[in-house]
Amino acid sequence: MTSYTAPLKDMAFLLHDVLKIDASDIPGYADLDRGFTAAVLEEAGKLATDVLEPLNAVGDREGCTLENGVVRTPTGFKAAFDQLREGGWPALDCDPAYGGQGLPYLMGTAVGEILVSANMAFNMYQGLTHGAYSAIHAHGTDAQKALYLPKMVTCDWTGTMNLTEPHCGTDLGLMRTKAEPQADGSYKITGTKIFISAGEHDMADNIIHLVLAKAPGGGEGTKGISLFIVPKFLVNADGSLGARNSLAVGKVEHKMGIHGNATCVMNYDGATGYLLGDLHKGMRAMFTMMNEARLGVGLQGYAVAEAAYQNAVAYARDRLQGRAITGAENPSGPADPLIVHPDIRRSLMDQKSFVEGARALTLWAASLIDRGHRTGDAAAEGLVSLMIPVIKGFQTDRGFEMAVQAQQVWGGHGYIEDNGVSQFVRDARIAQIYEGANGVQALDLVGRKLTQDGGKHVMAFFEMVKAECKAHDADPRMAAFTEPLKQASKAMQAAGMFFMQNGMKNPNAALAGSYDFMLMMGHVCMGLMWTRMAAAASQALDAGGGDDAFLTTKIATGRYYMARQLPACAMHLARIESGADPVMALAAEAF
Amino acid sequence: MTSYTAPLKDMAFLLHDVLKIDASDIPGYADLDRGFTAAVLEEAGKLATDVLEPLNAVGDREGCTLENGVVRTPTGFKAAFDQLREGGWPALDCDPAYGGQGLPYLMGTAVGEILVSANMAFNMYQGLTHGAYSAIHAHGTDAQKALYLPKMVTCDWTGTMNLTEPHCGTDLGLMRTKAEPQADGSYKITGTKIFISAGEHDMADNIIHLVLAKAPGGGEGTKGISLFIVPKFLVNADGSLGARNSLAVGKVEHKMGIHGNATCVMNYDGATGYLLGDLHKGMRAMFTMMNEARLGVGLQGYAVAEAAYQNAVAYARDRLQGRAITGAENPSGPADPLIVHPDIRRSLMDQKSFVEGARALTLWAASLIDRGHRTGDAAAEGLVSLMIPVIKGFQTDRGFEMAVQAQQVWGGHGYIEDNGVSQFVRDARIAQIYEGANGVQALDLVGRKLTQDGGKHVMAFFEMVKAECKAHDADPRMAAFTEPLKQASKAMQAAGMFFMQNGMKNPNAALAGSYDFMLMMGHVCMGLMWTRMAAAASQALDAGGGDDAFLTTKIATGRYYMARQLPACAMHLARIESGADPVMALAAEAF
Lengths: 591, 591
Prior knowledge:
18 helices
């Protein structure tokens, strides 16, 4: 059996000692004092530990079942969803104009981590709703917002995003779902969408589907795509529910993981839809939500790894097997706990240092999103847009690997489903795939983001790293952080230079190295985060009166990351500099 | 739906162009001419493609069920097992004195790859039987051999290995299962064993359990352990089946993968057992079979990756999505196939170059085992014993990662169980865990194998690498192989030096780097194999009259591995040289 405890101390350290949010000039941040954030996160932690985590295994075991067009969620999900609603959690960072609590996105992100760690599949119902809420909030008419948002803010109605079709995933230009304009200004939507998370279920009165479809006159490819609101039940002008719309779930997928989430095939059969945003600008509307959606998936990457890590630590402390090579540490017992063995330590340190670094990166990025939204700071928006593919791709890859390492600590018992750690691996796996497979993230990073706005965001990133290193020049304790960070950043710059020099004549030379560049930049981001965390911890230690054990542990964890993970950057650079030839040498028939 | 075709060309190239087995001085190898090996492997390929592969998904879906003490295998397994028996496959490399065909272990290994690729879970019933056969063959009395082996050679009776107990896996010294001597020379075995593959099933007339247990007088820890033959049905002197023994399956485990294999809890309740080998020398008896058992698991690592790779290639050729950045390659279609995209190529090249390298390493090691067994060559035995933890640990780690990459090529469709590629990932996962978890392999390598016989085997390995590089000094085409190999070997030597200089005062300094050393040595082994394969392919090209397309593909695949994978060695060295401090810095309570 697994368990989970919210990492409240780590979060408080990040929010207040590293990001120093209560001293920030971002509107709304001044209210986020230590007492307030602690109260919110502690409450979220209780819900997570007491309600959601125990349902995680239930959801995995039972899955969702489709009978006569009705999707039944696992036992206990509906009651838990009611508790989530009653606690007001879905409304946390929504617009007060529609019943939201108006807290920063940063707080929604921190709470999100806790809920995802406890039960990733369950939290997707809320997560998708939040995505649909954001789309309507950003692109809807006042009438649409008034009609749909209040119920979505509370999760009385949930939402979905319908992009993928059987023959098109990444390449949405191949889309076949059609929207035919009607005399009353609405559209008839016809087509089949697949992989629709929370597409149908028994936990809400209505489901507001956002559906990409092609309306006449938009031209070929992605240009002709528009976004539509297609409710399960049509909504009357007074907000009451009207007729059942012509859409139905065709299948609930049997998946490797996230069984508690209903992943549906959705059939739209002349369903009534309402244009959301501008005609033929559906892709643009989707893109405005992409940063948050991808940050949310990057968060899943480390949030599941955190839960897996906690259970690996518990097992490593509990399981007696072998003796420490330096002499028995549990001499009165039949053997020492696993945690005495260096290779178990290596694994736990890998996991711990990744999760804490990724949390820092994610919360920092969330604060940059707040800065962009709340102050219109274009530099913050540019920076976060550069980092999003890294947060999504790197964090979900590493998060999966760390879940695998956590399972490995359990030995054979980790392979037995009853023990629950296999679920972490199976659940974490999807985060590498959906919301743009990680190869697509790498393509986005190297093919688009690096050169966006004349490359100024990546230049700003390098400047930021340089400034961080320089700021600690005088502090010899920080050399274990700044030296590896400088090296890693230099390697990343060399990779960028290689792309510039070779990518013009042969774009494959850049794209063949894109995946390595994404991972390399991930390590540099983590190195930057660890440098900041170590500096904050050192300052807090110098100031005294803090939790010294916590702070020294933080520094030691960061030193591990710098010493053991940043050397990966040189390997990625070597791969990148080998260019396109090794990668593209074979004819397609030769595989 | 998945499919599988045996890689007959690759195997023929390895056996005859690289290993040159028909020119070998190992007894029995001279008979293995091209026509013979091709005929055997082609037949195995037919069985794999036509019979075993279609059952792979069935086994995954249905699993094994326990009802009233009887374990039912998935639909079709029993008929397929009969076909396997009728084809004489289990007897392939067994002793002719007991009905075997007496072919070299190398041929059993090549056939084994084909069967495992097609259906890993199914092949375990045969694989475990072969392990038990080997133990009885090596340690049994003449009477025991005559009584049990003929039926085990044919798989009319299957076998199991019983080591693990609920509270002890790696640390067998904690074992509680007891063996009480009886007046007639037999023993009464009492205890519970877990994770017993093929522990109970409906495909054989009898099951011969080999059980480790503690007999009185052997002392503490592993010293008191003996090995016993404990048949499900007692066997009369004339070979007929006698009474049911006092043992029963307690549970069939619900696992992450290999569902078609019945993984059992076995309860021995005063069961009749017969000592196998010397009293209190059970661990030593187990160790003599360990090389083959671990090589078999290392084989599973790449064999499942091969199957996954084949299905990734098929999907990448078939699925139309996006356009090549260098211009449409399928202009008449709605999009280009995935295989045009550089990052898909990177993934497929990773998979292909790993699988082919691992196959070479495994077959080479199998030939060294033959050399040891058939000529008593101690140097061959020492070398293979050094490489076994690498073959097991590195190949199963990388094999799993490659299965994950293959699944990634399928995008969201890879996460849907109906498509069958998730099974490769779930099945491959166990190979990293059982037969000594990979962390234990690393410990075996660094803590034992490096220094075995005064370190002479690792010195011989370095000499062999050096000689291989020197042999191609005059051939500029080979520099792309020999230069990275020299670098990687130098890094590995530096790591060994670090262990020597630091491990004496602080054993943790060596053990903290053991995992990285295992992976690094894996890359060096692969580099050595690719150098040999490239040289053989170049020679065959020079000679002319061969399959030029195949040979140039082989060289290009090797160049990819050298350019893109060998740079990992420098990273592993950097990690190793960071020593124990970062790894061991935290108190156990600080996690």
